[in-house]
Design brief:
By secondary structure, this protein is of the alpha+beta class. It is built from 5 helices and 14 strands. The chain is globular, with a radius of gyration of 17 Å. The two termini are about 30 Å apart.
């Protein structure tokens, strides 16, 4: 897994993050790794919390936050993605004329989260059955947050489910919202903003708020794996 992540064309990934705010990744998880993560769903001891989305009017479906220690595959993904994304995060801060604040390793960043009282793990697995969807939202969880997160789809589109596309909606100041619809096959990933992204305008960079969600699953069951880098209060 480290080799697959480190061997990504990170120059191109950074370019996509800067120009469009997100980057779709090639398949990084093998089908057996996807099944390994799906199988964790049925074991309650893996999780600290289960959320029924309909109950909270978040959408329709269910997601579960993993308990620490995380499954080894998930932990490795979180560790290996962080350094390159921290470079992008600091670059975005500088574009907005702010000081870079994200340390080079996930461990250092989590130590900062924990010092601020954010100690609960946030990586999660999401399950949508026919009719399920996720409303547009952001995953902040506290005063300290990391500006990127990564999503993997764990089963195969058009075989295990239909619909269920990933949605990003970008709100630029004094302008109409812009939407992106991204389809992911099994094992493919998506890097996208947690809160906002910088966009270059005529007077320099400005912030555009970004929210994400999932369109309605029209048949079958869709499993997703969400990698959030900051911990929660």
């Amino acid at each position: 897994m480290p080799n697959r992540i480190s061997s990504l064309d990170w120059e191109e990934v950074h370019r996509l993050l800067d120009t469009q705010g997100f980057a779709k990744l090639p398949p990084l998880l093998e089908p057996d790794q996807c099944q390994e993560m799906i199988h964790t769903y049925e074991h309650p001891t893996n999780f600290r919390s289960t959320i029924n989305m309909k109950r909270y009017r978040f959408g329709e479906g269910e997601y579960k936050y993993y308990q620490s220690p995380l499954p080894s595959l998930l932990l490795q993904l979180r560790i290996d993605f962080y350094p390159e994304l921290a470079k992008a995060a600091n670059r975005w801060l500088q574009q907005l004329k702010k000081e870079p604040i994200y340390p080079p390793s996930l461990l250092e960043f989590l130590e900062h989260c924990h010092a601020q009282g954010q100690t609960r793990s946030t990586p999660l697995i999401l399950k949508y059955e026919t009719g399920g969807y996720n409303c547009l939202h952001q995953d902040i969880y506290g005063d300290v947050y990391f500006p990127f997160q990564v999503l993997f789809v764990l089963n195969q589109r058009d075989r295990d489910y239909t619909g269920g596309e990933s949605i990003l909606v970008e709100q630029r100041p004094r302008a109409q919202s812009r939407g992106h619809v991204i389809t992911l096959d099994q094992g493919e990933g998506l890097i996208f903003p947690t809160n906002h992204r910088p966009i270059e305008g005529t007077r320099g960079y400005y912030r555009a708020t970004v929210r994400h969600g999932v369109s309605t699953v029209t048949s079958g069951t869709r499993f997703g794996l969400g990698i959030i880098f900051h911990d929660a209060k």
